Amino acid sequence: METEIENLLAWAETKGIEINGCSPKQLHGRGVGIVATRALKAGEVILRVPTDTLRSLANTPPSIIASLPGASVHAILACSLCLDTTSSLSAWRAVFPSKADIHAVLPICWPSELRALLPHTAATLLGKQSAKFQKDWATVEAVYAPQLSKEDFLYGWLLVNTRSFYHTTRQTAKLPKEDHMVLQPVADLFNHSPAGWCAGAFTASAFTITTQEPHAAGQELFIKYGSHGNDFLLVEYGFTLPPPLNAWDETCLDPHVCHALTAAGQRPVLEDAGFWGGYMLDRETACYRTHVALRTLCLTPLQWRAVLDGERDEDRDQRRVDAELVRVLRRYEEDIVERIRDVEEATAGDELSREGLRDRWVQIQELVVGTRRRLEEQ
């Protein structure tokens, strides 16, 4: 990979990309990232990518755009990556993750046996992602098959999905937000961190990345992809962050809360009040919707409505609500133990896929067990 990185840097220089005090580096078990090559101060611009170097709708070959009327920008950029055989892309393409790498970490590529073991939120996100891909492929297939296979298009589509930046231009301003996508060399090698990240910014002439705090030589430099939980990171990017690095992590309690509420006949009441489903648990507590829903199991209908209307102090019944939540979390714990065992016994797919899936369930286990213990100790 050292040769590929050297070629990328040489190519980037010819494109006017300015790299200051940092460089791509192969990181053990994590692909390519960006590390500081010297001590960096806060406020240093460490990367500047000229606007005309961005790979966007604006510089996609007109023939591709014309052949895909109504296609998403995501699909158009993916097609452009797949069909571009010019030497201008070769140095950049050489540092892309391989097709095998992509297949190992992204659930959309996993066999059905592993996808069936995804947590509820991840499975829901994957369903939406798969529908989006199938829609894009239907558009592309009608024009470019068999020249472009579904497998190759999926690879290009996932490269765009995992490496694009959101950038609004005159050309994309009227398009949906998800179509404000550009690809950019070198900048796409920065990994994600929810803390200690460098700031990215677009101007009319360039995209820049600037340090926000000092960094020592050899330290990895990050940007922030967004405030995302680990289910989102797993489905969209193919990785998760171990606790407590991801302060935004959460898990959905719907399968267990909804089961308890349905058994007690509370679903119609909660649907009528707009509180059915969407029950989440983060590192601190269960969400307000969860407490409202579980309160139906503790109070009479008149008492519950009084709390909802602000006529009854919700703290008055909090211990009873917490007891219901503990029962839900205990059921969830039992389910998690089963899912971890299922993953450990699975033989389908890549070992790296199974490791990533098991890690996700262990992270959820820590969220659930930690909350349950805090409640029981109160």
UniProtKB/TrEMBL annotation:
<protein>
    <recommendedName>
        <fullName>SET domain-containing protein</fullName>
    </recommendedName>
</protein>
<dbReference type="InterPro" id="IPR046341">
    <property type="entry name" value="SET_dom_sf"/>
</dbReference>
<dbReference type="InterPro" id="IPR001214">
    <property type="entry name" value="SET_dom"/>
</dbReference>
<dbReference type="InterPro" id="IPR050600">
    <property type="entry name" value="SETD3_SETD6_MTase"/>
</dbReference>
<dbReference type="Pfam" id="PF00856">
    <property type="entry name" value="SET"/>
</dbReference>
<feature type="domain" description="SET">
    <location>
        <begin position="15"/>
        <end position="226"/>
    </location>
</feature>
<dbReference type="GO" id="GO:0016279">
    <property type="term" value="F:protein-lysine N-methyltransferase activity"/>
</dbReference>
